[in-house]
Fold these 2 entries.
Entry 1:
Amino acid sequence: MSPKHRSFLSKTMTAIAVAILLISGSTLPAQAVPTIAHLSAAVPAAKNNVAKVKTKANLNMRSGTSTKNKVLRTIPKGKTVPVSAVASNGWYQVKYQNKTGWISNKYVTVVAKRSAPKAPTPKITKTKKVNLWVATKSTVNMRKGAGTSHSVVRSIPKHSAAKATAQAVNGWYKVTYKKKSGWISNKHVITCTKGCQVDTGNYTTNRAGLNDRYFTKSNGADLYSAAGKRLRIGDIPKNSVVYRDVKWEKAGGPVTDWYFVRTQGMDGWMKASALTRKNTAATSNSKGITRKQALKQHNGKLPASMLVAIPWDKEKTLIAAPAVKDLTRLNAAFKKKFGKNLDIDLAYRTLDTQKYYYNELGPYIAAKPGTSNHGWGLAIDVPESYNYSFKGKYYKWLKAHSKKYNWTHRKNLEEFRSNGTRNPYAEAWHFEYNGK
Ligand SMILES: [Zn+2]
């Protein structure tokens, strides 16, 4: 299996947020709008600053804005009534004894005015200072202000981390990402007070341009998806190559005593104290361990004493000790043929890491955890480059010659099945050790 297939599964999610801002053009209650035909238009309430009037005489309240309309009530002299609208002819719409109607403006005095209608206030004015990291759960638009009505500054890809410095009352965060500042919705992020790195979902080889190299000190060293959250994603065997990614560490928020690393085709956080610059792995089977002995171990739980580093491999990839001698012989023949060493992508894989990949990749690509020969260090994956593919010269040679060195490419991993149909489990890169 190969972690490279992770990219096949990565989903591109785009969050689409649509905001509809309904700005009321009037504070008039809907039912207060006159419906009488001859009433051309009520003065918009925005311009109606009359709140209450007091009658100077007994005054008829009518169903419309003229004396031709039906009298609904008579309001006694000296009564103060609330005004809900002003008609274009100046008549007031008032409420009296549970009825709403119109009175002439000639027989009243204005006793209360409305305060001038306020200009629409910006939605978000209050913010509080925060000091945390946010990681995006999907691609998120960074905007000029804390709301979807503001223009987009840029988009922040899924699984990015950004520093947040303020939070608006609606929950949006002010963040800085790649030297640009803006606001992002809190709905699409997770927050961490310390580092906020998340699994990027993108496969990165250990060789991805990084050179700050460490090795794990103990067998089954912990790899976490986020230093703050500490979700454990892998158990890395002792003497495994780990590359510290300082750039990424800074982007996600550095955490004291933790390193953001790439290892075993995964990335995550490790305790700095779990790492060392020195590799102490043997490169030969000096203890004379047999394949049988390795197979007696729990899959993915091989003791460090049974693991050795592949001698010519720059990454010091670990393999079960009994397999190294024949692999070295195979490499010598390969080198004689092609003038270069056999490339190794991975060999031993721990149980937790197998579980991680099984969850990520599914059964077509990853073996059921606890069943893979990688779990006993008795399998290697060569790269998936063209020359190692089914059509490539390295594959063809390995397929024909590896058996001599007790390394085999299984028939059920071939490109086509015996009936000529394409094999969904095909893997050109996977070879297994069947020697002693
Ligand atoms: Zn494999």
Note: The chain has six helices and 27 strands.
Entry 2:
Amino acid sequence: MTATAAPAVLDRDGLNALVAALVAQGRTVVGPTVRDGAIVLAELSSADALPFGWGVELDAGRYRLVRREDGAAFAHSAGPQSWKNFLHPARERLWSADRTPEGDVSFTADEPETPSYAFLGVRPCDLRAIAIQDRVLAGGRYEDTGYGRRRSGAFLIAAECTEPGATCFCVSTGGGPAADPGYDLALTEMDGRFLVRVGSEEGAELLERVPHRPAGPDLEASARSAVDAARDHMGRSLPPVDLRTLMGASLDAERWDDVAARCLTCGNCTMVCPTCFCTTTEEVTDLTGDHTERWQRWDSCFDLDFSYLHGGPVRASARGRYRQWLTHKLSTWHDQFGTSGCVGCGRCVVWCPAGIDITEEVAALDAERTALGTETD
Ligand code: SF4
Ligand code: SF4
């Protein structure tokens, strides 16, 4: 079988065999599972740990697990984590230094063992988010070597969407519920079976090792039509205008004051966002003063210190920081990296404690521009 092989079908035993084969290869298999009242991403020892029969109810600032009668494993939207928690972890030690008995200082670079990841159930929006982080963290002049190490061996199994969540809007960001190339295998769950498409030679080799059967044109056509239909059922949408023009024309919008009055500048939206990549470094010294460590940790443009320059922060107000975040996501990200910085996963909407909804804010900015007679489409 090759990367262009015809789609196959796995049943639940086949899915179990797939996970077992990945574990047997020595891979750390990570996928969705129910824990602490949410569907989180965690290491799986078997496909039985997938959230069969669980879905989620979502809204701005609201997330609830709900039971599903159909026993589906992948009929839930993005949870509080994304794959960046594994590829670009929240904290990572870079090096440590010790004072020697002679009074010198010795430095030790941190060289942790890099897990060989297999990600199971990567949503199409998250596949795009990984491609964005690849461009930022592994594709430019300033490579994050830890990210590069973890990413280079990762095996990706996408799970296409047939049931978008109430806060999903990937179609508005130029994506959709079908998986773009970049996966090794792509699953589409159909009534307890999993249509499998092969995206790489490694994916083809793995599929050969597990029990499967040819998909047949009917199942394939139903899967394609279920995924196509999902495009029309997004829970949210962005206004159909040129967002770069809108953001550029909205620098002095009154709406920024409105959102600033609600925004707690907590940074949750940047923590859960699968594309936000900013980090800072900090030194941690022990009480003796003889041992110090340098850690890299996620940073957020909502932190006051983030824009600290020569005696003060450049963006001291919540208005300035929210505007920076949204303008970077939807406009200046294009200038830096050639794409939008938003894949429409809806996480920032769900996990904002103030229930601030990026789609509502953009619609309000658009309405303000329209009211001023400067439409942007
Ligand atoms: S928009 Fe929401 S999640 Fe983001 S910083 Fe403001 S209050 Fe926090
Ligand atoms: S900005 Fe919000 S909707 Fe867009 S990718 Fe980030 S978390 Fe997802």
Note: The longest strand covers residues 91-99.
